[in-house]
Amino acid sequence: MKPTNQLVASHTVLKNRFTLITLALPIVLSSFLPVICLRAQTESPAAGGTSEGEKIERQMWADFKAKDWKAVESRIAEGFQSIHPDGARDRAGEIALIEHLNLGVFTLSNFKSTVNGDNIVVTYMIAVQETIDGKQLSRKPAPRLSVWKKGTHGWQWICHANLNPIP
User: Fold this and answer.
1) pTM for this structure?
2) What is the mean pLDDT of the chain?
3) CB neighbours of residue 32 within 10 Å
4) Alpha-carbon distances of 83 from 24, 65, 88, 145, rounded to whole Å
5) Exposed/middle/buried for residue 110 (C-beta within 10 Å: 0-12, 13-18, 19+)
6) What torsion do the CA atoms of 81, 42, 155, 110 make, to the nearest 10 degrees?
7) HEC profile for 18-76?
8) 101-116 and 76-84 as β-strands: parallel, antiparallel, unpaired?
9) Which of the two residues, 157 and 13, has the higher pLDDT score?
10) Most CB within 10 Å of its CB: which of 54, 83, 86, 88?
11) pLDDT digits over 61-120, tens only?
12) Which residues are 133's β-sheet partners?
């Protein structure tokens, strides 16, 4: 092969490699994008040490304890569902349960919040002195899960799981 042909051939190979890398790079990077996005969705505590999910959950419990039913009801979405050891409840059933709830001292801990679009999924542990319909529930820490959806009127409670056994 003549030196000029070798130079042209080398230039063509380099050009093809550059084109291949240019085309392959976005494909390779896009395979990592879901992992990067998933990591970004887990809520980390704000400067005050509390995530948005933790703040709204703590506020809901404060309103339960204060028996501020207007505030509680305003944050429970239409179509709300909950699950308890004794079965599922809709919005009206949950409100009726909450209104018959007598809370004593409670401790919330181990919050984990995950943001997915305009939703926050919050899990936590609660140790609480509570009586429902005259029955004292266990004071041992028990897991809870809430789902909140951000709407035009702020955060709305759309789902809750209470895993504390009812005697």
Assistant:
1) 0.70
2) 79
3) 9
4) 48, 21, 4, 10
5) exposed
6) 70
7) HHHHHHHHHHHHHHHHHHHHHHHHECCCCCCCCCHHHHHHHHHHHHHHHCCHHHHHHCE
8) unpaired
9) 157
10) 54
11) 999 999 999 999 999 999 999 999 889 999 999 999 999 888 889 999 999 999 999 999
12) none
Instruction: Give, in order, the Cα–Cα distances in Å from 22 to each of 33, 68, 109.
Output: 18, 60, 49
Q: How many Å apart are CA 87 and CA 157, to the nearest integer? A: 18
Amino acid at 53: G
- Closest-CA residue to 157 (of 146, 165, 166, 167): 146
Mean pLDDT across 53-67: 96
Please tell me whether residue 13 adopts helix, strand or coil conformation: helix
CB–CB of 77/98 below 8 Å? no
Sequence-ordered list of residues with C-beta below 8 angstroms from that of 67, at least 6 positions apart, any chain: 99
Which of the pair, 39 or 25, is modelled with greater confidence? 39
**With 80 as the cut, is the pLDDT of residue 148 above it?**
yes
